[in-house]
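Section 3.1 - Work completed
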Amino acid sequence: MPYPYKCILVGTGGMGGSWCRSALPSNMTDGLVEPVAAVDIVPEHLDNAIDGLGLSRDRCYTDARKAFAENEADFAIVVVPPAAHESIVDVALEHDCHILSEKPIADSMEASVRIARKVAAAERKMGVTMSHRFRQDITTLRTIVHEQTYGRLDYLVCRFTCANRNRGEWGRFRYDIPDALLVEGSVHHLDLLCDIACGGDGSLCDTIYGRTWNTPWSDFNGDAQALVTMTMQNGRQVMYEGAKTNAVGINCWSQEYIRAECEHATLIMNHGGIEALPYGRGNAQRGEGEPVALIDQPKWSNTWLCEKFLHWLDGGPAMETNVQDNLQSVALIFAAAESSRTGQPVDVQAFIDRFRTQS
């Protein structure tokens, strides 16, 4: 298939609007992709596709099946709530389309495994947009940790805290789903933390222990606070704090705090910047370290992920977050939820195998 690859965007409100404004236009300019239709159940949201993608009104639909039936496409971009992912994947596969989907794969481990199997059976390609793993600051931190610029990694600590306790401050649908923080927020953080901690050595998460809860002053119906610890197969440790109902947001989206304790330095990523505090300084304060230059390139996050997916369609290497490998990441959030319910740590690889067997 030659460039540009034709796509149907399903979901144009909220995050879908961001796809219309930034992730797709940049790749359209580069001649990599051509949107041929857009779908959203809220007609007003389709204005984003008209304004951002240049689609005509007759190429904008409120019915996904009609959109796929009337427009020939190479792949679908799925930007709808997780509970609707599988139904859109089914429609896309019926029309022999590849798929690029927002995280998580689905709203349950069972559905995630089903989707991965359906995609494999159809011999299609599916990528998952773990956009935060491919931010400029995260990519820089991952690179210097993997290259052991400051020696070997010991452990990681991550803080993600927000003040979104009131309904609608973080998208209305999130206030009604179970485990909202894990499914819609921590899915990014646990994924990128495992990616950094594994050091490019092929290790996976071994065990995970999670405690989740909701606060009395929260409008969330599901748990919106979490403390999680993970042990990698290579022995490295990860500690994670996630919160959506705090009084203030200290480290919210794209402003997360990650501390990497390495052999020769403590690395601190905070609010998009990174500093290194070398060994031998005794007691040091944040801000007293050496600034780490961030890697520079034209595209980041979903814009870069979209390009990676398109290169994969064109015969390049599989994107890192292909659906089969991404089962490891989605398993982290559902295993953490199970751990919180049982009060016991969960063997992550046994957890995945259990659902594969059941499916």
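Second construct:
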Amino acid sequence: MRRDELVRRIQSVPLPPHPEAPLEQVATPAEAAADLLAALDRYVGLAGRSVVDLGCGTGRLAVGAALLGADPVIGVEVDSSLVPIARAAARAAKATVEFRVSDVAEWKQPADVVVMNPPFGAQTRHADRPFWDCAFSVARRSIGAFASSTSRTFIARLALDRGAHVVEVEPVRWDLPRTFPHHRSAMVRLPVDRWVIEAGTKP
């Protein structure tokens, strides 16, 4: 699938209608999502790979992975109100994705590839830690994720501790529109990195 088509179809996945600040429910930019999935596709090949999207929200990364041939794809989301939206978006995109309601801290089912846009810790310090712990526990081949650039040292050390290998870490353009009541600016550019990590164990 061409990049512009993938971006367009990811962009069609709606945003959370009532985003919760404590959960940092912000939309993954469609172009950033497409580039992360393309990077994973180059490295490990998504076609036929099992993928889990941790904290999937309305399903942008999960839908994008399915459109690139990943199978099966599971989206894991703690907010049950977002799951019907994600399911409808997947149907509209003709993407086969299973969505489940679960806290990532309780998720144990392995997958070849983990994708995620976890909280950056803007509301609750270290809110991203359960996501990274889960990702390193269940990923059999690779992890693709976004993170605040301030977390580079933490993630690199965690990968080293888990016997994983950082394939690439690249800054990405991330413009956050006004989402929550406490936001004062119409748009803020956040320092965000795209990570591709080879998991510590392979089948």
